[in-house]
Amino acid sequence: MVSYMDSKINTIIHKVVQAGLADKTYIFIMADNGTESTITSKYKGRQIQGGKRFTNEFGLHVPFIALGPLVLPGSINKNIVDFTDFMPTIATIASIPKTKWSNYGIMDGQSFFSQLSNPGVTGRSWSYGNYFPYPKLLWQKRVYVQDTAYKLYDSTNNNNFYNLQTDSLEQHPIPNSQLTESERAIKKNFKHVLATMHN
Description:
Elements lengths: L1 H17 L8 E4 L9 E4 L2 E4 L7 H4 L3 E4 L18 H8 L19 H5 L9 E5 L10 E5 L3 E4 L7 E3 L17 H16 L3
Antiparallel strand pairs: 1-4, 2-3, 5-6, 6-7, 7-8
């Protein structure tokens, strides 16, 4: 499947080049979720079962590749990019003034355009998620906010707070009694984000 996708992406890139549009075209390649649970992959020396339909790191954390005239070749950016960020980024590329973004509805995203040419630019500090694939199955709903190190769910997952660096499968929520001062501040900020997002 990956080889087939790779060949199709290659076809698109060649078509863009042949049409003389490479200097004015951006191509974004990303996945929308992790792999099926029937697929096991190697990750940093670990055997990882596919996380599709789960909201842990292996269901959510996917690669994103950008090609375009201002993208720094060979650069790697580890900042958070949220799917809501694509609309404002494309609007920036299209030179649509930020004052007119509200014409397209609620805009929770942030443009990552400046990060394409300079990976050193600071990106967003958190990402919000509202996973609710089947409205009739309330037990599947998961609402959360996270950064690259921590994650907080709302009541849809018992307000659990996780250290993603040491518990990527989210099996050991951190009790309030064991939080460091830094973790308490992070959790407090995440609670504020959850309270202000559009549920």
